[in-house]
User: Fold this.
Amino acid sequence: MPHIFPTYEWAVAFKEEINRSQVYAEAAKTWEGAINFVIDDVLDELGHPKVLWIDLWHGQCREAKEAAAAQPIEAPYTIHAPLANWKKVITKKLGPTQAMVSGQLRVKGNLAHILKYVKAAQELVECATRIETEFVN
Amino acid sequence: MPIQPRLLLKIDLTTQQITTEPIDPRWAEDFIGGSGLAARILWDRLTPSIDPLGPDNPLLFMNGPLTGLAGPSVGRFVVCSRSPATGLWAESNCGGFWGPELAFAGYDGVLITGRANKPTYIWINDDHVEVCDASSLWGHTDTYETQTVIRTERHESLARIMCIGLAGERLIPYASILCDHGRVAGRTGLGAVMGSKNLKAVAVRGHHKPYIARPDQFQPLRAAANRELKEDNITLGLRASGSAAAAELFQMYGEMPMGYFTRGSFIGQENISGNVMNDTILSGVTTCHACVIACGRVVAIPEGPYARSDSKGPEYETMVGFGANLLSDDLSATAHLGQKCDRYGLDTISASNTIGLAYLLYERELIKPADIDGLELNWGDPRPADYLIDMIVNQQGLGAVMSRGARTLAKHFGVEELAVQVNNLEVAYHDPRAMASMMLTYATSPRGACHNQSDVFIAEIGTEHPEWNIPMLQDPLSEAGKAQIAAQHQNYRTVDNSLVLCFFAHVPGSTALSLLNAAVGLDWTMTDLQRAGERIWNLKRAINNRFGLTRANDKLPKLLLEPLPDGPIAGHVPNFDRLLSDYYQVRGWDEQSGKPRKEKLIELGLDFAADVLWKSNA
Assistant:
């Protein structure tokens, strides 16, 4: 059954895929820090951009939640973009590093630190592509 | 509305004559400034018989139309001449604060000719210009000490000074020029040109406000540009981890050379990284004039053979040159060796490249310990490089050969093909086997194997520049369409080198255009800007053609045409011949001679160059 991006159900499915990935476990074994994925043009009922909060720690996803920009959950890294750009990345039409270098995914936090884990970032995308995804209209 | 006349300060060191001259406003418009305008100014002077180290070789320090204004990242100036390393067009630009100070003194450039009869330095204090005795500095002071001594002597703690070290004094063809806190015009041996003129330093202090044609337009534009730049992803990376911020990414693409371009991986490679420097020896950051990026690194090494308090840290090229290039993961060593080169005034790319070749020749048993005072050049051990740098600068033993560069060293052992250079400029640390368009960048750059005429590797990993017709690229290894991309990117960066805008400032073309128009009073479109880039690129090519450059010079060294045995690009080499043929088509260059076709030169408004290059066929 497809999960709709960006929703809590999709975030949970993402967490499960991450935790199934040995590649991610190895590539991110020293990564510490949650990431807020902000979908700039998908708004909640209060008109705030939707946020998926993904807590990544030592090669595992500890927790995944849906939040809103109005009530952000603290994270050292925030990546935000309009839905169209998220879609390009999740469907592998655009590589994650290309998306960050070109600014199609905007980063708040230490981009260089994220680039250090470029293999992990690629595997996160692989995990996302394994989820049967429909994108919110 | 006519643009503001720009002023050139002219100093003949032989006669000690000092004059000023307005720059032809048509040139200032057609060639923008920086290296573009320098190429036009020097066209008449750079005749084929000019000896790069002779008194007639002109040495031009040139600002851009934005230099000294309040951003974004417009603190740079450029140095141009004929190169003692390549015999071709020489240009090298430099950050820091010297260029802006020259603008505050009221000049757009300083043209130096002749040769002083004793060591000198030039002191520019607004309209007071003086040639001063530097005998006490020559042979004694390094590039940092020289700045301190001159500031003290002039009682001007705010004077900005660019100078040479022992390498420049000794005419080493890859001697650099350094200013401020280790900002360097490193490539093409311009430090040796200064040395050949007995010129140790140029010190400047200015008190004027640079001219802005349309200040009401310019100020909000530059404020917005600075704000936008501050939030840019690339800025964030550079600010956080310096120019080596993307080291891991480059490694993933196989773009970081290792073991003098012969390896695809080595144990410890993950330590060659701006991030690792952050976690280990980083103690601070530095910035240039009007820059929100602050890519400069300061390091402190508490103990060990390279122990030191705060001093300049290595940028990407130095970190790779004295790190991965020697299969060493010792960041402290890269900091030490880079700093040593800076003090001597030696280009770290050419120096480390030549030293890397020495390691390779040692591995292949062509260099023996007896050739190098008993040293053993084992991969992974950077310690001998310390001694080799001294040997180079002192031109002692094999150091005398190495001081001529990698090609001379390889030739000395009968293996010229092993030198990784183009037109005798050693290749920068971006492996073109991993980024097809970089093959063209190195082969056709007007100053030899250079990444600062076009850092197209950044486009290969995803930066797009729609206003320059550079789309997002998907496959760095593919040759398809890359000739067009390489040419467009060269035009784009040629404009930046004319503005003179730092490559690290990821400023959209439309922003650069608006800033230029407001600063100098133009009404250019993007088409005009693109055209100017193409015009200037072809002018530099024409200068080189007049020096004797042909298509035969557009080549890559053998090592870069052989596949690597391991790593991300193992077994892969882009088809260089195909790329070059495509490139000639795109450029409108003559396949036989390597010159821009006459009609191309005329189309670009370079009739004067067409008249000279195609005289016999006119």
